[in-house]
Specification:
Largest sheet: 6 strands, antiparallel
Structural class: alpha+beta
Number of strands: 18
Shape: flat
Low-confidence stretches: 167-175, 436-443
Mean pLDDT: 82
Radius of gyration: 27 Å
Distance between the termini: 34 Å
Helix content: 25-40%
């Protein structure tokens, strides 16, 4: 820790962040830039921000000595998560006082102390900001600075511009239906507590003002999407009496909308992605059936080869679709130590020849064993290598490297392709998500590969992350516990 905070550097860095916001940037790029500006000013070895949702947290931004934690999940019942979400909003924490797996990972990276502050909106925690240091020290001005920066981040969440990365925002789902009573001019006369929970507007903000929601005709129902992405189902009816008042009820149906959307998307993606290989297989099969005698041996072999290739693609696609729908994992067997280097070399053998020729393996001979499910590694590497090949020029190299970092061992798949935008590094793991859609899509695929990779790796107590490659392209990194 420095003798004093470098406030001029902090202000200059913060000015850059504000300029980014004024220029239209939002979300992860702005958050990451804020951490990069704060780290040297605080004299920290690394910075990290954990976003929290109903099911736990995830490191969505990290710099310096903490960049290895990017993408790491924190379960809601993890002792470290419980510790971070309790106690004073801002404080100093010794890594040795943590009781979860995170403590060993931090210590393995030479980090012994953190100054942490929760980012809160209306008493609801959206995340926590961490400044990490290699040695012990007494708390000082850095606590005030970290608290201020966490408040700035909370303000970014309140704007709902690209944040949160996961979930539906800082307002929790309503415990009961929201209820409002409006007059004939649709001015709010009554606003119950559940309405405030659903909409985020207090009674003071809503009363005697126009209803902040569309008003359906009496007796009808309307589904309405809020600016933060949530969906409400709104109904209205006339109140008896001379006042011409109308009662309006509304509830959060975001989960139902998401399930309906996922079901429709699954059917659409399945039909679209299955159509191409089936059409090709049928075409070549019909050609062999109808023109066998007129084809020479080379043409017949070529047709059979294409049918075999497309059948393999079809089988793999069906497996991915079924795995995605069934939410299956790597198995019920407990994780066990395995030779990561040997497993990677064996997995490469199963890749298509055209892809295998592009791979450059750099695996150290003394790579420690990993703890996990060895058979599932073939699926993980296949998806990452296939993804790298799809989004990079034909014939360009795809590098597979491995290494150890404290209590973690992992590998990277690096390509020299089109790269990935910073705001897409998390969305890329969503099921069915594609960087392009409709007629603009230049790359085939169902949008399931990275989704399956993340699920498989996290079920082995590891995590996976994406980031742009410095010289162009994308780096996918998988980290697993050491065996």
């Amino acid at each position: 820790m420095p003798e004093r905070i470098d406030f001029p550097a902090l202000i200059a860095g913060h000015a850059v962040v504000i300029e980014m916001i004024n220029s239209g940037d939002a979300g992860l790029p702005v958050l990451t830039q804020l951490l990069r500006a704060a780290q040297p000013a605080l004299g920290a070895r690394g910075m990290a921000f954990v976003e929290f949702g109903p099911t736990g947290g995830r490191v969505i931004a990290a710099t310096g000595a903490a960049d290895w934690a990017l993408g790491r999940p924190l379960a809601a019942d993890d002792p470290d998560t419980v510790c971070l979400l309790s106690g004073p909003r801002v404080r100093q924490v010794r890594v040795a006082d943590l009781n979860g797996k995170l403590a060993g990972e931090l210590a393995g990276s030479g980090l012994r102390r953190m100054v942490v502050s929760r980012a809160e909106i209306g008493g609801h925690t959206v995340g926590s900001l961490h400044a990490l240091y290699p040695g012990d020290g007494e708390p000082g001005d850095e606590q005030a600075v970290v608290s201020y920066l966490a408040s700035c981040i909370a303000h970014m969440y309140g704007d709902a511009s690209g944040l949160p990365v996961h979930g539906d925002g800082p307002v929790v789902a309503a415990l009961a239906d929201g209820l409002a009573v409006v007059d004939r001019e649709a001015t709010v006369r009554l606003w119950n507590p559940a309405a405030a929970q659903v909409t985020g507007q207090t009674a003071e903000q809503a009363l005697n003002r126009p209803l902040p929601l569309p008003l359906p005709p009496s007796g009808q129902v309307r589904d309405h999407r809020l600016p933060d992405g949530r969906w409400l189902r709104i109904t209205s009816g006339e109140l008896p009496g001379p006042g011409a008042l109308r009662v309006v009820t509304f509830r959060d149906i975001t989960d139902q909308q998401r399930r309906d959307h996922d079901r429709e998307l699954f059917v659409a993606v399945t039909s679209h992605e299955l159509r191409t290989p089936v059409t090709v297989i049928k075409g070549y099969a019909d050609t062999l059936t109808d023109h066998w005698d007129s084809l020479n041996d080379a043409d017949r072999r070529q047709a059979a080869r294409v049918i075999g290739q497309r059948a393999n693609e079809l089988a793999r696609l069906v497996d991915r679709l079924l795995s995605s729908a069934a939410e299956t994992g790597p198995g019920d067997d407990p994780p066990s130590p395995f030779d990561l280097g040997e497993a990677l070399r064996a997995a490469v053998v199963d890749l298509p020849v055209e892809l295998r020729r592009r791979l450059v393996l750099r695996l150290p001979a003394d790579l420690p064993k990993a703890l996990g499910h060895r058979p599932s590694l073939t699926t993980v590497l296949t998806e990452l290598a296939t993804n790298a090949g799809k989004y990079s020029p034909p014939g360009s190299p795809i590098e597979i490297t491995a290494g150890v970092d404290g209590q973690l061992v992992g590998f990277r798949v690096s390509d020299r392709g089109i790269g990935i935008r910073p705001e897409h590094v998390e969305r890329a793991f969503d099921r069915f998500w594609q960087g392009e859609s409709g007629d603009r899509r230049g790359y085939p695929g169902a949008g399931l590969g990275l989704y399956l990779v993340r699920r498989i790796v996290e079920q082995q107590n590891g995590w996976v992350s994406l980031r742009p490659r410095t010289d162009g392209g994308t780096v996918a990194e998988v980290r697993l516990p050491r065996g």
